[in-house]
Amino acid sequence: MVLTEDSGAGAYDTVHALAKEMLKLLVPGVQTHRIDFKPLEDENARRAMHANLWKSTNPLDQPSIRLLIRSVITELLKDTGFVLYHIDGDRPWSEHESSENVREFRSRMLPPIEAGVRLQLQKQSHDAREPGKRMKRLQLIVPYYSIEAWLYQNTRETRYLCEQEGCGQCYPQKLAGWEQNRASLDEVTQPKKALCFQDQHNVRLASSGFPAQETYDAEASFHHAVLQLLECDELTTALEQTYALAEPPAH
């Protein structure tokens, strides 16, 4: 299950495409077309994700938040269920430890999710260590400052889009410097406002030649997110099993 705080058109497709690139780094050659990626289907639960409404203390928002929590629990309890949840850090990477969004997610969302997972597994007489393993299947995907800090790493496409549909000045002003120092993009406050087309082409930037390896090698927030995924042994095992599902070569 791929979740995102963004509510704009193409938000799910953007995070879905980035997630696939991250999984390819975890297990090179993984058969991503054999993974059942899906969004959250319940509209009321999606409402709690958008604009970080899960942080709301308004009583009117609590039913949606509970639905979101229940949906995550249900996915984690499936034999092959995993949840990739995108929230923005809303900080430059150098200040990532002060991210309010991450801190609030860990204090508000994780405890009820873990309690629900633990309760259901206890009913099923699972090993006492199982809840901890299941909770590792819930992975935060956190770009700093925002998801555009990752998307704009696709400088080839950003340059083309700027020249063909935008101001034509973004490359000499911004993109050339980012190409030379990719980690510097994670230090841009509100990067969406740094380029002329802002977030109009996010899906394209994520799915058309996204430079995953170069972005990982920058050793900033994308690098950190991939390393976090590696901590879930069950995820890498499941990805490796996609090889076994592949059709034998034609004779």
Structure description:
- The protein is mainly α and about 250 residues long.
- The protein has one domain (about 1-145, about 215-245).
- It has 13 helices and 3 strands; from the N terminus they run E-H-H-H-E-H-H-E-H-H-H-H-H-H-H-H.
- It is globular.
How far is the N terminus from the C terminus? 36 Å
Count of helix runs: 13
DSSP strand tally:
3
What does the overall shape look like? Answer: globular
Query: What about the largest sheet?
Result: 3 strands, parallel
- State the strand order across the main sheet: 1-2-3
Q: Specify the structural class.
A: mainly alpha
Short recap of the structure:
By secondary structure, the chain is mainly alpha-helical. The protein contains 13 helices and three strands; from the N terminus they run βαααβααβαααααααα. α1 (11-26) packs across α11 and α7 runs antiparallel to α8.
Quick tags:
51% helix; three-stranded parallel beta sheet; globular; 4% strand; 3 strands; mainly alpha; 251 residues; single chain; 13 helices
How would the blueprint of this fold be written?
Blueprint: E1 2-4, H1 11-26, H2 43-49, H3 62-76, E2 83-86, H4 100-123, H5 130-135, E3 138-141, H6 148-151, H7 155-165, H8 170-180, H9 202-207, H10 212-217, H11 221-230, H12 233-240, H13 242-245
Parallel strand pairs: 1-2, 2-3
Helix pairs in contact: 1-11, 2-3, 3-4, 7-8
